[in-house]
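Notes from hallway chat w/ T.B., transcribed later so I don't forget. T.B. wanted the structure written out for a chain they're using in a teaching module, and asked if we could keep both sequence and structure tokens in one place. Agreed to drop them here.
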Amino acid sequence: MNQMTNTFRTTLCVWLGCLIYLNAQTLSAHADKPNVIVILTDDQGWGDLSVHGNTNISTPNIDRLASQGMALNRFYVCPICSPTRAEFMTGRYNPRTGVKSASRGEERMDLDETTIFEDFKSAGYHTAAFGKWHNGMQPPYHPNARGIDEYYGFCSGHWGDYYSPMLEHNGQIVTGDGFVIDDFTNRAMHYIEDHKEESFFVYLPYCTPHSPMQVPDQWWKKFENHNLPLRARKDQSETVSHARAALAMCENIDWNVGRLMKKLDDIKIADNTIVIYFSDNGPNGYRWNADMKGKKGAVDEGGVRSPFFIRWPERIKAGSKTDTISGSIDLKPTLLDLAGITDTGTLPMDGTSLKPLLFGDAENWPDRLYINHFKGKTSVRSPRFRLGYKGGLYDIQNDPGQRTDVRDKFPQVYAELTAAGEKFDKEVVSELPKGQDERPFTVGHPNLAFTQLPARDAIATGKIQRSGRAPNCSFFTNWVSEKDTISWNTDVQIEGEYQVQVYYTCSEDDLGTVLKLSCGDSAITREVTVANDPPLVGAESDRSPRRSESFVKDFVPMDLGVIHLKKGTKPLVLSALKIPGKQSIEMRLIMLNRISE
């Protein structure tokens, strides 16, 4: 009996030893692969944080993030949203990526680009994004086709309402849950909890403080009557209601950042998680911004300087700072280097790994020039100077507001920066196609069955009107003539049968409209028999009047049937064969799902 007991004990010890060894090996392998969280805010200026001296606002959680890691005080991005996102994902200046602007297809990133998510996924990471994508909607431009396993949010440049709006989850239309920033953060925290034993890369691209200027009462109450002691400079026209709303939205962001950081502490993975925080461009309106010139859309200092903090408790010294020039093109090479991952792409990156700077090993770090470009305007930044797009030279160290042109005082510097800008225009900007983006919108993908074709990307004829000047979250209305059409120039990638839904509204009085969807020699028709007549929403939640975004409605799907689409480029046309009422439907979106090949 004793011999059997001893044998059992020996066997048990061997098994336990093996389990401990295997578990230790797993933990060791995981420890060598840091988790990554990238928080990207939308239209938040460098000055929209209390850590940067703005006493109008209190952002203790973001300030704490800065104090627990490293602050890159001279970090530069692009003047608007999509180009910055493309630079972050590729490590390449945005003109190389094909991203020209923010809408009508110009935000799509070239398909020969390899994203940072594809590299991390190839290295065994779980990848997720929660929020605003803004680098293409239709696969293969969609996040699920560019290295993102789990996607929840919206792919357009802005959204019309921030309270439980229409969103998508891995290509399927869903309804959000409450205020979008809170919702995105909740989703991210759930994902992190589910993958805490694995290596993950979570991208959290918030859509605030981009307009519409909406924020819950909890944050608005402080700012509703705030006198804002710090104001925009005198030569900048500040809209106080807009500034108040933007700062309230930034405090909501701060609260969510605090929740996220607490989650990392609670599940005990903070030490081996890299957290990055930055913004995609300068502020979306004139407000206090440390006297810098420019806002969103400008290549001046205030339009392209972004807050940037990186925390990695295991490796980056808390409270460290650097004034070394860096920017969005450096993020991909830096994160790949920190995680020990090799780029799987074939295109050379413009950025450089900042790992030596972050680890305090950059004694002989060379000076560099950083270049910003947008719509024909090129500006060059050196460690001390900025060359303005109109040719002026400004000593930023002594003149952060770019008030005094010093080109005559520093002619050699002026010549060097001018030459660098001209070279950039010739070698980099020239890669962008001239004129309007003529690329068709793709339909069908080998691995993804869905394709969304929103009103944003369509062309309407006749009296059909877009619901807002900015197309991103718009819909079509005033469809009063059977001669008028809505069409998309499409490139069908995979021939097959596609189930079609149209997201629509229609009053009871306008029922009986007969819709036709055609593409080449294929067509389907369907009569509208169910009313959906919701009110416009959004205005009741705006804290400052919106400037261009459309208000929204509760659009619902109607089955149009199954259409056979042949491979190739051709227009997909939605027409009305019969309009018995005052108008046809209001149209927000066509959803195609491939059901067979």
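Follow-up for T.B.: The longest helix spans residues 2-31. Might be a good example for the class.
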